[in-house]
Design a protein that fits this description.
globular, Peptidase_U57, 5-stranded antiparallel beta sheet, Sporulation peptidase YabG, alpha/beta
């Protein structure tokens, strides 16, 4: 076994595919490929695996995730069709408009997941600024970045998990989570900057995060109601949908659950207005239609 190899753990029945981050003596530090999970395991517990069908596959993930991306692209096309029909009915065919999708500030505690997220934001035409920030530093980073970037949507994610060594039955205690307290602190800083949940939407959490605490802190959408692993790019899917949902429309988790791989066990939230605006008349450029950011 070498650094960079794809492996599974025999003791867990090979349920999750990992990439070896590094090897320390007879143990490997592992990063989940599809799920936001950090782990370690003895080298003797590892089996070789293939990247096919994972986020390290050039096709970018499982068929279920590719379907989520297809649905996001379809919803954008439907928004454009709706805009064009509105102009045709109220003005005349051929009238132009410009788009102002909601801008995303994405903080990620994992640089590899951040790179994949930024690639997909680009493909989906979502305006975004992304930063790799270790989870304990996220509150301070938001305090500095929010006044500069002024986003409509904030994604706060990385790694989390329920600690192995804890008192049984204490899942509501934040001290029993790897990074939930840091995520809660970051959400609180963001809500001090903007208290209105529709003016600035917050998507927060990672695998097994303390869902209730994140919502109480002010998140619109958070993980993980059933304390399950969440797909690495589920937070992105929610943010991308909100970026292209009209400010006139309100969406709930039921409207976007099909865009996630993990479903309602992994993510939940409160009704929230979208952040997309149509502008008239169009701002001319070489393509005849512009996206304002």
């Amino acid at each position: 076994m070498r650094q960079g190899d794809f492996v599974t753990r025999k003791s867990y029945g090979g349920d999750v595919i990992f990439k070896i981050e590094r090897i320390e003596q007879l143990k490997a530090v592992l990063r989940g490929v599809d799920y936001r999970l950090l782990a370690d395991a003895p080298l003797t517990d590892l089996m070789a695996a293939s990247a096919a069908g994972t986020l390290d596959d050039p096709r970018l993930g499982t068929s279920q995730f590719r379907e989520s991306i297809r649905r996001l692209a379809l919803s954008q096309a439907q928004m454009q069709e709706k805009n064009e029909l509105s102009l045709t009915h109220k003005y005349k065919a051929g009238s132009s408009y410009f788009e102002v999708p909601g801008k995303v500030l994405h903080l990620d505690g994992d640089p590899a997941y951040l790179r994949k997220s930024m690639q997909l934001y680009g493909e989906l035409r979502v305006p975004v600024e992304g930063y790799y920030i270790p989870e304990p530093q996220m509150p301070d980073a938001l305090y500095r970045l929010l006044p500069q970037i002024k986003p409509e949507i904030v994604v706060i994610t990385g790694h989390d998990g329920i600690l192995k060594h804890r008192n049984s039955g204490e899942l509501h205690n934040l001290s029993n989570y790897k990074n939930s307290q840091h995520f809660v602190n970051a959400v609180q800083i963001a809500r001090q900057y903007e208290r209105n949940r529709d003016s600035m939407i917050i998507v927060a959490g990672a695998c097994q995060s303390h869902f209730e605490a994140l919502l109480r802190a002010g998140a619109n959408f958070a993980s993980s109601p059933a304390r399950v692993l969440i797909h690495a790019l589920d937070p992105l899917c929610i943010a991308a949908k909100l970026s292209y949902t009209s400010v006139k429309d309100t969406i709930s988790m039921l409207d976007i659950v099909d865009l996630t791989v993990t479903g309602l066990e992994g993510l939940g939230g409160v009704e929230t207005r979208g952040s997309y605006r149509m502008g008239i008349p169009g701002i001319q450029n070489v393509q005849g239609k512009a996206q304002m950011q």
